[in-house]
Amino acid sequence: MKHIGLFGGTFNPIHLGHVRVIREVKSGFDLDEILIIPTALPPHKKSEKVVDAKDRLKMIRLAFLNEPDYVISDVELKRSGPSYTIDTVRYFTSRMPESTRLYLIMGLDAFLEIDTWKSYKELFLLIPFIVIFRILGAKDDRTSGSESVGHYLRSRISKGYTFSPSQSTYIHDNKRPVFVFDVSPVDISSTLIREHIKRGISIKHLVPEIIEDFIKTKGLYL
């Protein structure tokens, strides 16, 4: 059986925090591949603040150049209208062999808003989740992150979810499992990078060098 993660986002721009998280999830779950899927028109973000999708796609490809286990998909860029996760999940589940197991990877903040997403109830029937959060040093961070997922699941999705400590997973008789996974804290955000560029502050050590060069050459985020 092949295990593939789906990791979507605006990636405006992709940075070293994204890259590290993606690698940690792949290793932690022993995934064969991760499909990295930039959004064209993110429904929850103001499109005027997002650079052209082709530039964001190019930067992601540069970040994982010559690494075949990280596959960059332009499926959402080819689709007209807003980029809805349910459409992307349906697309891949309908095209992958039955022997393939897909996982939807997302951050804790995004997961805790999932009941505002289009057809979110169907997502819990179609695909297992991997919910990632960052441990900032406090010994209770790991527990509180997991408990946030559990409380949300039982209050907004279904009271039938129960936690399996041995698997760090919330399981349900009729719905897909929800895995929780803590990743290394990295104090980097795309917002910070855009602000640095506008203020003329170096973004070295925030993005891969090849992407820093691309941003400078294209004059992005000025």
For this structure, the quaternary state is single chain
Roughly how much helix do the residues carry, as a percent range? 25-40%
Mean pLDDT equals 93
| Helix and strand run | EHEHEHHEHHEHEEEHH
Please identify, by name, the CATH architecture: 3-Layer(aba) Sandwich
Strand content: 15-25%
Which structural category fits the helices and strands?
alpha/beta
Number of helices: 9
Counted beta strands: 8
CATH class: Alpha Beta
Task: Enumerate the spans where pLDDT stays under 50 for 5 or more consecutive residues.
Answer: none
- What's the N-to-C terminus distance? 46 Å
The coarse overall form would be globular
Largest sheet: spatial strand order = 3-2-1-4-5-8-7-6
Largest beta-sheet details: 8 strands, mixed
Structure, explained:
This protein has helices at 16-28, 53-63, 75-78, 85-95, 108-111, 120-126, 141-157, 190-198, 209-218, and strands spanning 2-9, 33-38, 70-72, 100-107, 129-134, 162-164, 169-171, 178-183. By secondary structure, it is α/β, with parallel strands linked by helices. It has a single domain (2-187), classed as 3-Layer(aba) Sandwich (Rossmann fold). Helix 4 packs parallel to helix 6. The longest helix is centred in the C-terminal third of the chain and has 17 residues, at 141-157. The protein starts with a strand and ends with a helix.
